[in-house]
Every structure is written in structure tokens, then in C-alpha cells.
Amino acid sequence: MDFSWTDEQEIWRKTVRDFAQKNITPRVREIDTNKKIPDEIIKGMAKLGLLAPTASQDYGGAGVDWTMACIAAEELGRADISLAIPVLYLVEASWGFIFSQYGSKELREKYLPKITSGEAFCGIAVTEPEGGSDIVGAGKTKGVKKGKNWILNGEKIFISGITESTKWGGIHLTLARTDPSAGHKGFSFFGVPLKDNKQIKTSLFEDMGRMGISTGGFVMENVELSEQNLIGEQNRGFYYAMEGFSAARVLIGATCVGAAEAALELGKEHIKTRKAFGKLLGSFEGIQFPLAEHYCNLESVKLLNYRAAWTMDKMYKEKKASHYDVALAAAMSKLRAPIYAFGVFNEVADWFGALGYTKEFPVEMGIRGVRSYSIGAEGTMNIMRIIIARELLGKEFLPY
Ligand SMILES: Cc1cc2nc3c(=O)[nH]c(=O)nc-3n(C[C@H](O)[C@H](O)[C@H](O)COP(=O)(O)OP(=O)(O)OC[C@H]3O[C@@H](n4cnc5c(N)ncnc54)[C@H](O)[C@@H]3O)c2cc1C
Predict the structure, then answer these.
(1) What distance in Å separates the CA atoms of residue 260 and residue 243, rounded to the nearest whole number?
(2) Relative to the CA of 400, which ligand 1 atom is closest?
(3) Residue 283: pLDDT over 90
(4) Hey, which of 141, 151, 159, 298 would disulfide with 176, CB 3.0 to 4.6 Å?
(5) 400: pLDDT confidence band, cut at 50, 70 and 90?
(6) Is the CB of 124 under 6 A from ligand 1?
(7) Cβ of 117 below 6 Å from ligand 1
(8) 311-329 pLDDT, tens per residue?
(9) CATH topology for 237-397?
């Protein structure tokens, strides 16, 4: 066992950190207020290979492995504590990967070079008004074959990147039932372009955090797609979705850790300089003990997280781990990271006193941003617990 980084990993971390600290960190408040990631940042990320970096190099991706993808996620989280840019990054890194693995040649050629160069967006659309956690039981979106084409009807909701997709173009990998009698084996994945599509009506939510990236929904009425828009094999969509969710959960862990590390750094600087009762705050046990606890929590989730990335690399590169191994490792990381990160933001806000409650101070953006991941983006905490219990007890103990 070796806990050190390779030279390549060190250089990658430094490259991403230098870019992100210089170009992103000074603009986070502006991004949060204007609700938009500036074009120059998108272009800079594209230049560094940070947009769908896990996609094949044949289509403009960087073909990075999951440990490298996590390093970049951690650095982007550290730079953008609001988590807007990390969300853009991790959604495209995980779902761009699924698209790159399973999409038809024609669809990949059409969209992936644009996605990796920041001219198109790649998102995920699984959730429906009546089916979030229980998409298998309650999902109503249907895909029906008409000649060689597919007709999609249904509604998707709480979907990240609606504005990005409708403005830039691109696709949302969209889950639809194609064999209603087959349960989870009756779903297929489709690449659905939202831009300029008259059969699609989009809507937006006003989120509480990660304001630089949009969340919304779309209704599909007789959306006609060519057979090339089917992702992978018909009726394998649920499996592709689970594969993408595991990847996203690992990257979420890394972004939450990065953002919380940044907050802890800010907090440490403050308690080393601010005085109360004639002493530096950092010399009080009541401040030191939570600092030690939170540092320890972050280190433990970081280890869980990089072990999950390592398990993914074992699976994809060496076939020495299974999708179940990855799902378990990813669920553990997603269960812990947003909670531990939230704990850090909350604590550091306390250390700053009244300033911690103002927008003069960035930690409130972290509190708002990270909450999206403990509420449910890419799977709720109870769903993580169900996955972990399933792996510990066996499928026969699934509660549904
Ligand atoms: C900011 C944000 C962005 C998102 N982006 C996307 C996106 O891009 N694409 C996409 O497809 N979805 C997206 N989602 C949706 C997300 O995947 C869902 O919110 C999530 O799957 C939960 O679904 P739900 O909101 O309908 O909650 P529900 O499924 O209704 O769950 C409500 C509560 O009940 C609990 N619960 C449900 N079943 C059980 C059970 N069996 N046992 C115990 N507790 C249970 C849940 O844990 C949760 O606490 C996003 C969500 C957010 C908040």
C-alpha cells in the first residue's frame, strides 16, 4: 500500500490548482450573484482538458482516470466554494464518460468535441415529478419505437444544466421506459437535445445555492429521436444510469472535501489572528477541539473518496473490481462527504462570529451549495444507506 501521489498526479494537481486559484477563486461571489459561469472560465477549463475530462481522447476528452478526475474535482471545489463550477465539472465528467463509453459513433462525433471544448453541455435527466428515489417504480417517461426512430413522452424535473443546454446546445442523457413490463430491465437511455426543440418545454427553479449553474425541468411531447440517439443497448439504460451515478458520487465526495478544506483554511487563519478575552481564539479548547474533529473527518472522507476512485480505476483499467464494489465505495463517500463538509462550513461560520452570517464572507455559499448533495442531487442519503446495506446484507433485504 502506498499513499503517495505519482509525479503525474502531483503535476496535474498543481496545474489545476494554479488555474483555479487564479481564474476561479476571485470570481466566486460574482458567479453566485450573476448566476452564470463566465465564458472565459469555461474556455480556460476546456483548454486544460477539464470539461468531460474522462471522455475518450478520440472525441476531445483527456481520457483521465478516476483518481486524476478526483484530484481535479477536489481542486475545483477548493477554488469554488459555492460548488457551481464543480457541479458543471462533475456532471460532465461522469455523464460525458457514460456518453463516451456507450453513445453511438454518430452522436459522439456530433456532440463530444463540442462538450469537451465548452460549446455544448452534457447532463443527466432521470428524476421525474412522481419518481425521484423510486424512478423504477414510479417513472412515467416512455420511449416508443416508430419505424427506426423513437418517440419520447414524459417530464423530467430537478435537472442540472437546463439553461446551459438550451443556450449552448448539447444533450441530456434521458432515462425512459421502453419495456413497461420489465421493471428496471425495461429502461433505455437517450441523448436528448434541448436547444431549439419545439417538442420540449423547459422550466427553471430558483435554487438556494450553487447559483452559477441552473436547475430546472423539461416536458417532452412526442419528441422524435433517431436510432442514433439511443445510448448503448435498448433496455440497458438503468445499468448505465447506475454506473454514471457511482462516478458522480465519487466526484461529489472530492468536490465537497476540496470546498471544506478551503473553508477550514480560512477558519484557521482567522482563529490564529482574532482575539477574545485577551487571547487568540485558536488557543481556546472550545475552538481547538472542533478544529481537530473536523480536520479528522475531512481526512477520513478524503481517504474513503480516493479509495472509491482507486476502486473505479481497478474496475475500468484492470477489471479487478465490480460495479457493486464501486457502488458501495461511492455510496460511502457520498454519505459522508456532504455531511462532513457542511459541518466544517457551519463551524467556520461560528468562528467568524457575525461576519460568518454576512455575504462579505464566502462560507455561506458553501453552506448553500453543499446542502444540494445531502438533500439529494445524485441520490439521497437514505438511498446511499440502502445501497450500503444491500451490499452488506444481500439483495433479498432491499426494502422495495
Ligand atoms: C440541486 C439538485 C440538482 C439535481 N440535478 C439532477 C439532475 O441533473 N438530473 C436528475 O435526474 N436529477 C437531479 N436531481 C434530483 C435528485 O436526483 C433527486 O432529488 C433525488 O433522486 C431524490 O428524489 P426526490 O427529490 O424526488 O425525493 P424523494 O425520492 O421523494 O425522497 C424524499 C425523501 O424520502 C427519502 N426516501 C425515499 N425512499 C426511501 C426509502 N425507501 N427509505 C428511506 N427513505 C426514503 C429520501 O431519502 C428523501 O429524504 C437534482 C436534485 C437537486 C437537489
Answers:
(1) 26
(2) 41
(3) yes
(4) 141
(5) confident
(6) yes
(7) no
(8) 999 999 999 999 999 999 9
(9) Butyryl-CoA Dehydrogenase, subunit A; domain 3 (1.20.140)
